């Protein structure tokens, strides 16, 4: 028998994959139970509702996103390259076979109007990303306006790649970021 932490992890991983692939409303707790390989009773003892499970999935996605972006930027030598590494990270993500867009944007679109907890965690993630980009822009000596512009480019690239199925949205966003950064540094 698996312990509580293993069961919890299996449930979150199963729900994450199902929600991301099929959509939150299309997935029932019985689907999650089957994919996780645990009983329905145990599932509900771990997560009393689908909403609670969804928030746990999104918290995990936030950690995954933060680590991925930070790792991509950490390998860059200059503040400019750190900023551009964000778009390189997006390019790699967009090319994954299972890419279906931003889980926070998707969740907000599906449930943000009816579940304040989903709207709140989506906002938290977007603000954290904006803050991260602002820190990188500060290292560059750039303005808060540049930080907002670069974050919007990244967010737009995610939505464009998900809807169009074209990973080159990251390339185009990166090129636009290069122009914005050069313009800021020249000013």
List the defining traits of the structure above.
187 residues, mainly alpha, Arc Repressor Mutant, subunit A, Tetracycline Repressor, domain 2
Topology:
Elements: H1 4-22, H2 29-36, H3 40-46, H4 50-74, H5 79-94, H6 103-111, H7 116-140, H8 144-164, H9 169-186
Summary, kept brief:
The protein is an all-alpha fold and 187 residues long.
Count of alpha and pi helical runs: 9
Number of domains: 2
Quick one: overall form? elongated
What is the level-2 CATH architecture name of the largest domain?
Answer: Orthogonal Bundle
Gap between N and C termini, in Å? 64 Å
Strand-and-helix sequence, N→C?
Answer: HHHHHHHHH
Radius of gyration: 18 Å
CATH fold type of the largest domain: Tetracycline Repressor, domain 2
Strand-residue proportion: under 5%
Structural class: mainly alpha
Can you say what the CATH homologous superfamily of the largest domain is?
Tetracycline Repressor, domain 2
Q: Could you name the ranges where pLDDT drops below 50 across 5 or more consecutive residues?
A: none
Largest sheet: none
Q: Mind telling me the CATH class of the largest domain?
A: Mainly Alpha
